């Protein structure tokens, strides 16, 4: 079952990343983050109320708050990198966030077997090889590489934090809700600062109308990302944290 949840996580995150990357071509990245996560907050809030998840509130939710603060930074860097560099480089490099949960798993005493070590090595080699042809093509901006590496570390940190934020299914719904509320708060504050400095909150072409037309896609990106976090957390609770490597390597666009 752990492998199935890990594969589901890979698929969901791949779809969310692909959809988010496409949306940022017309809509400012911060607006995509805030709008997509706002939809997730509404849906998760309804689920938490329906399942009585608020009864699971406890100190572990601070992990969810931390994940929510890191998440928007990682997503924004990732989307910005996609706008600056070729997808064939940004996507594989973004998967290097695997180092964070793998390292934490090792620190917590998890010891992978020979086959698991081999799997991790193959996955990392695949990441490098996937970006190789693109790196030999058109020059890649240094800023794109830097932003991708920051995003990778952030994604890995979110994975590790959300896996520690709950121990039950209802608690997981609450943790994901808290994470998304924090996402919207942090992303909204960043968007407000950006607009105050002369940045754009709406697309140049179509403005608010374009955002409204994109709501189904924004909702899909937000909900797919939430579902991916949930399936990863379940996988991490039923198997070793390092076992599946970073889910974003499987769907590499």
TrEMBL record:
Keywords: Membrane, Transmembrane, Transmembrane helix. InterPro entries: EamA_dom, EmrE-like. The keyword ATP-binding does not apply. GO terms for cellular component: membrane. Residues 3-130 form the EamA domain. SUPFAM superfamilies: Multidrug resistance efflux transporter EmrE (SSF103481). It holds the Pfam family EamA. The chain crosses the membrane at residues 6-23, 30-55, 61-82, 89-108, 114-132, 144-163, 169-193. Belongs to the EamA transporter family. This is Integral membrane protein. It comes from Streptomyces pristinaespiralis (strain ATCC 25486 / DSM 40338 / CBS 914.69 / JCM 4507 / KCC S-0507 / NBRC 13074 / NRRL 2958 / 5647). The lineage of its organism: Bacteria, Bacillati, Actinomycetota, Actinomycetes, Kitasatosporales.
């Amino acid at each position: 079952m752990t492998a199935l949840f890990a594969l589901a996580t890979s698929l969901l995150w791949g779809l969310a990343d692909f959809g988010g990357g496409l949306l940022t071509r017309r809509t400012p990245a911060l607006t995509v983050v805030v709008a997509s996560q706002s939809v997730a907050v509404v849906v998760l809030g309804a689920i938490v109320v329906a399942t009585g998840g608020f009864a699971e509130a406890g100190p572990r939710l601070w992990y969810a708050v931390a994940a929510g603060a890191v998440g928007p930074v990682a997503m924004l860097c990732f989307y910005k990198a996609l706008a600056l560099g070729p997808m064939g480089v940004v996507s594989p490099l973004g998967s290097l966030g695997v180092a964070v949960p793998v390292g934490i798993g090792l620190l917590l005493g998890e010891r992978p077997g020979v086959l698991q070590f081999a799997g991790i090595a193959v996955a990392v080699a695949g990441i490098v090889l996937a970006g190789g042809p693109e790196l030999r093509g058109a020059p890649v901006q240094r800023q794109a590489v830097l932003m991708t590496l920051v995003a990778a570390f952030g994604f890995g940190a979110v994975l590790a934090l959300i896996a520690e934020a709950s121990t039950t299914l209802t608690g997981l719904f609450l943790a994901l809700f808290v994470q998304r509320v924090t996402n919207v708060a942090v992303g909204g504050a960043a968007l407000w600062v950006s607009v105050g400095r002369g940045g754009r909150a709406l697309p140049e072409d179509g403005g608010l109308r374009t955002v409204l037309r994109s709501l189904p896609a924004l909702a899909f990106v937000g909900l797919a990302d939430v579902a991916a976090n949930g399936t990863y957390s379940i996988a991490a609770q039923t198997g070793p944290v390092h076992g599946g490597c970073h889910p974003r390597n499987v769907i590499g666009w």
